[in-house]
Every structure is written in structure tokens, then in C-alpha cells.
Amino acid sequence: MVKYALKRLLYMIPVTIGVIFVVYLIMYLTPGDPVALLLGPDATPELIEETRAALGISDPFFVQFFNYVINLFTGHFGTSWYTGNDVSLRLFSAIPYTLILTILALALALIISIPMGVIAAVRQNRPADYAVSLFAICGVSAPTFWVGIMLILLFSVYMGILPSAGVDSWESYILPSITMSFNLLASITRTQRSSMLEVLRADYIRTAKAKGVSNRVAVYYHALRNAIIPSITVAGINFGTLMGGSVAIETVFAVPGVGRLLSDSIKIHDTPTVIGCMVFTAITVSIVNLIVDMLYAAIDPRIKAQYLKGGKKS
Q: Number of structural domains, the chain?
């Protein structure tokens, strides 16, 4: 398992470099001059050229790219072209807000979706199953920003019981965390229902019931343990993605997290900050996927045996 984890961590290096290359190329080819936006319309051509040279923007693309990669491996994420601050400082100040939102959204989604998926599978083709399926379809189909706006109208504008924007208190996290969990909740519910239906039809479940095991024990002890693995996959992948920053949610609720930092940086063409946000997202997704794989082994010993077998072969 240790060799497998180290191998996965080493894979993060080419993945991160690839992300940097793609993002840098997109920002490089994007129309518009960031220096002209920075200095304003009254800037002279001489000042613009001096600023471009100072920021390294006048260098060829591959020179800028390799310089950034070298600085990144020395622990420097670059300097914001607009604030003059280190990108790492801006990023680390935004991470706590996104982390809190992500943990709350994921916890809310798991607490609700797992039981709903199990109930829908156990009561297949019954009113409970139809209700859960209808909710899941609505949850997957509804745009995230629309859900957020509807919650603001209901709880902030009409009822006036929750703040609509900002993070002044713990109450400020309620609406954005619910909004962030809505699509995820629906996705995990559908995944859990499908996986549970497949496991409930397995031979070992029928054998357990034939030996006198109660339906509750067969469902919640034998079946759920195997059926929950796909839901962990969905939750893990979405956790990494959400930690990268949900741009729509953090913009609607004015949360100063990674998503809003990324959105604001793209608008002003702040390439170092954009790349810093994307590098953080790539590393987070890779680490979370590794943790999910480790959870597989903890839940299902057969998967752990496969990892160990693969490690011996390598």
C-alpha cells in the first residue's frame, strides 16, 4: 500500500506540469493586454513596455512557462500582477472559506443521500422509490446558480432569517453549503440506489437470507458495505472538485474562496493567480482520489489484496 501511495504521489508531478502548460497556454492566447488593464488608458507605450519586461510578459511563451515551473518547484507560486502580493498568500487566505463550505456540503450530502438511496432500493417501484427518484432528477437538472438564487429569495428576501452574502457569521455558511450540496446529494442518491439494487440481487445476499439472516442485517450490514463504494467514488471526486472552488456558488453568495478568486483573476487576466488556483485544484483532486482509493481498501479487503498484489508485481 505504501508503494502504491508513493507511486500515485509521483504521478502528481507530470499531471501538475500538464495543468500548468494548458492553463498558461490558454491565458497566453487569450485576447487582451493585462498590462494595459493594469496601468489604465493613460499609460504611455514606454511605461507599458517597461512593465511588461518587469513582469516577464514580454518573454516568449516557453520561457515564461519554464520559469514558472522552476519557481513552483522552489515553493514560489508567483506574484500577482495586480496586487503585487504572493499568489500563495492570496490562495491560502481563500482556502479556509472553500474548505468549510466543501466539508459542510459533503457532510450534508452524505447524511441525506445514503439513506435515501438505500430506502429507494429496498422499496423499489413503490411510492418512496418514485419520490426519491423524482427528487434526484430535479437535483441533477437544476442549475447550481439558480438554486442559490431561489434560496436567497426565499430565506433572505422574503423570510429574512438568513444572510444572503458574505461570511460574517456561521449562519452565512448555511445557504451556500446547501446550494453546494444540492447537485451532489442528487448524484450520490442515484448512485447509491443503483449500486444497492445490484448488490441486493447478488447471490450472497440471497444465501444470507436463506440461512435465516434478517432483512435488516442483510441490507445494512452485508449489502450496504459493498454498495457504498461507488458513492464514495462520487463523493471523493466531487470533494476534490469543490475544493478547487465552486465559482458560481462563491460568486452568488460573495464568499471569498478559491472559486471567487479564480473568477476575479480571470476577469483581470492575472495569469499567476489563475495558474495558482488551478495547480491547487489539480493537487487537491489527486490527493483526494488517492484517499478514496485507500478508503476502498479499508472497506473491501478484496481491493486491498489487489493493491498488495499489484505492488508485489511492480
A: 2
